[in-house]
Amino acid sequence: MVIENKRIRSFVLRAGRVTAAQERAILEQSPHFGIVLDSNSGNLSFNLSKVFGRIAPLCLEIGFGNGENILQLALKNPDRDYIGVEVHRAGVGHLLNCIAQAGLTNIKVIFHDAVEVLENYILPGSFDEILILFPDPWQKKRHNKRRLVQKKFIALLASRLKPKGLLNLATDWESYATQMLEVLSAQPELKNRAANNRFISRPEWRVLSRFERRSQRLGHSVWDLSFERL
Ligand SMILES: C[S@@+](CC[C@H](N)C(=O)[O-])C[C@H]1O[C@@H](n2cnc3c(N)ncnc32)[C@H](O)[C@@H]1O
Questions:
Q1: 136 is an active site residue
Q2: Model pTM?
Q3: Residue 33 within any structural domain of the chain
Q4: In a domain, 19, yes or no
Q5: What is the DSSP code string of 26-78?
Q6: Pocket of ligand 1, candidates 8, 64, 222, 223: which has the most ligand atoms within 8 Å of its Cβ, to mutate?
Q7: Which pLDDT tens digit goes with each residue over 199-213?
């Protein structure tokens, strides 16, 4: 993964522990279940339609962490294809291992900054669904600018959805939930699917990830949002 320097990132790469099994999975499973972006061949070089060798509804998960949600979704919905983008090395290795063990053919992993992937490699109207579950809340005021859910990024995501495509989010941080609601509601191509134009109930497909379990232990509430591309 090559990271450009200048822009404000939604993540900080930490040296955290990566197990030998996760490193091995990155080395051995990336050729099978990873998508390697070719930065030399220029923008939009990445041909999504060839990735799975079939035409099926396509879902993107941004920042999948350990991959609990995308893995379960891929297992339960063999008629849909899934792409997960993550920058956290241990999480990428973990998910690659799980995919290889389950022998799944409807899920691929991109080890890269999702903002760059969407800006440079994905054509408009590509996805039926985009998930951003518990994005880093960047709680301190001076760090809020690092939050993934901002006007510019949501405009980019809206453009990468197909008409009637869904953008589903969750957060356990109230001020971020409010920001998400404001930013998404202000995006003209998006329509809130919540009956009260605010938040939806917890969707049944969402599994309890390690991150969410921790958040529960801390007594946090969770806000779910679901918007449709007009
Ligand atoms: C708080 S964790 C939540 C993980 C997971 N979605 C869950 O619900 O358990 C947020 C994740 O987003 C990833 N992330 C943050 N910014 C990202 C970006 N620009 N591109 C890809 N992943 C990103 C982080 O590495 C981290 O693993």
A1: yes
A2: 0.95
A3: no
A4: no
A5: HHHHHHHHB----GGG-TT---HHHHSSS---EEEEES-TT-HHHHHHHHH-T
A6: 64
A7: 999 999 999 999 999
- Residue 87 to residues 42, 149, 155, 162, 196, Cα–Cα distance (Å): 21, 17, 22, 25, 35
Let me know if residue 194 belongs to a domain.
Answer: yes
Residue nearest to atom 25 of ligand 1 (CA): 88
Domain span including residue 192: 53-229
pLDDT tens-digit profile of 141-187?
A: 999 999 999 999 999 999 999 999 999 999 999 999 999 999 999 99
Number of domains in the chain: 1
Show the ligand 1 pocket: residues with CB < 6 angstroms: 10-11, 62-65, 85-88, 91, 113-115, 133-136, 148, 209, 211-212
Residue nearest to atom 13 of ligand 1 (CA): 63
Tell me, yes or no, whether 39 lies in a domain. no
Helix axes 20-33, 89-102, angle to 10 degrees: 60
- How many Å lie between the centroid of ligand 1 and the Cα of residue 214? 15
For 28-63, the pLDDT digits (tens) are: 999 999 998 876 654 444 678 789 999 999 999 999
Q: What is the CATH number of the domain that holds 180?
A: 3.40.50.150
What would the pLDDT profile of 13-34 be if each residue is shown by its tens digit? 887 899 999 999 999 999 999 9
